[in-house]
């Protein structure tokens, strides 16, 4: 009598996909949260660096001073002599409007100070010189 042995059923090795999917989603969330989504477009300037820089979240009036000393108000080039009048219109009677001066780090300090002085004369009670965080 011939006896046939039963073939053993081989189990396939299966990797646990649920834990891998969880890890991939956690990594995706981590990279999405750590990525900086704010992109400032417009005038190309390199801001000075500071260790104690803090982000501003209020609505502000932004004045740019590029490397050559040209002045831009809200991404539009404006002559230095018309800056006072335009800032006075934008500030109006609001005493708490913040005026941010973003000057290139290689610009002559006198030009940035002149812009800040013009903003103060136009009625800006709050002035800020923008910097980028030093890492």
Task: Give an account of the 3D structure.
The chain has 135 residues and is of the alpha/beta class. It has a domain of 85 residues: 2-Layer Sandwich (Nucleotidyltransferase, domain 5). The protein contains 3 helices and 7 strands. The protein has a 5-stranded mixed sheet, covered by helices on one side. Strands 1-7 form a two-stranded parallel sheet. Strand 3 and strand 4 form a beta hairpin. Helix 2 packs across helix 3. The longest helix is centred in the N-terminal third of the chain and has 18 residues. It is rod-shaped and about 110 Å long. 12% of the residues are buried.
Strand-helix topology:
Layout: H1 17-34, E1 49-50, E2 60-65, E3 71-73, E4 76-77, H2 80-91, E5 98-103, H3 109-121, E6 126-129, E7 132-133
Parallel strand pairs: 1-7, 2-5, 5-6
Antiparallel strand pairs: 2-3, 3-4
Which characteristics define this entry?
135 residues; alpha/beta; Nucleotidyltransferase, domain 5; five-stranded mixed β-sheet; two-stranded parallel sheet; 7 strands; 19% strand; rod-shaped
What's the short story on this structure?
With 135 residues, this protein is of the alpha/beta class. The chain has three helices and seven strands, in the order H-E-E-E-E-H-E-H-E-E.
What is the number of beta strands? 7
Q: What's the CATH class label of the domain at 49-133?
A: Alpha Beta
- Strand content of the residues, in percent? 15-25%
Q: Name the CATH architecture of the domain at 49-133.
A: 2-Layer Sandwich
Q: Helix count?
A: 3
Cα-based radius of gyration, to the nearest Å? 29 Å
The chain-level structural class is alpha/beta
The CATH topology name of the domain at 49-133 reads Nucleotidyltransferase, domain 5
Oligomer: single chain
Largest sheet descriptor: 5 strands, mixed
């Amino acid at each position: 009598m011939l006896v046939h042995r039963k073939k053993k059923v081989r189990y396939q090795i299966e990797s646990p996909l649920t834990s891998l999917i969880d890890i991939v989603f956690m990594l995706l969330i981590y990279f999405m949260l750590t990525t900086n989504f704010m992109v400032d477009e417009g005038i190309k300037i390199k801001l000075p660096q500071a260790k104690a820089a803090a982000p501003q979240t209020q609505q502000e009036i932004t004045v740019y001073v590029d490397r050559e000393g040209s002045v831009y108000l809200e991404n539009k080039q404006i002559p230095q002599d018309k800056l006072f009048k335009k800032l006075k219109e934008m500030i109006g009677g609001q005493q708490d409007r913040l005026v941010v001066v973003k000057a290139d780090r290689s610009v002559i300090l006198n030009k940035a100070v002149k812009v800040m002085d013009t903003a103060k004369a136009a009625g800006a009670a709050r002035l800020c010189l923008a910097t980028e965080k030093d890492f």
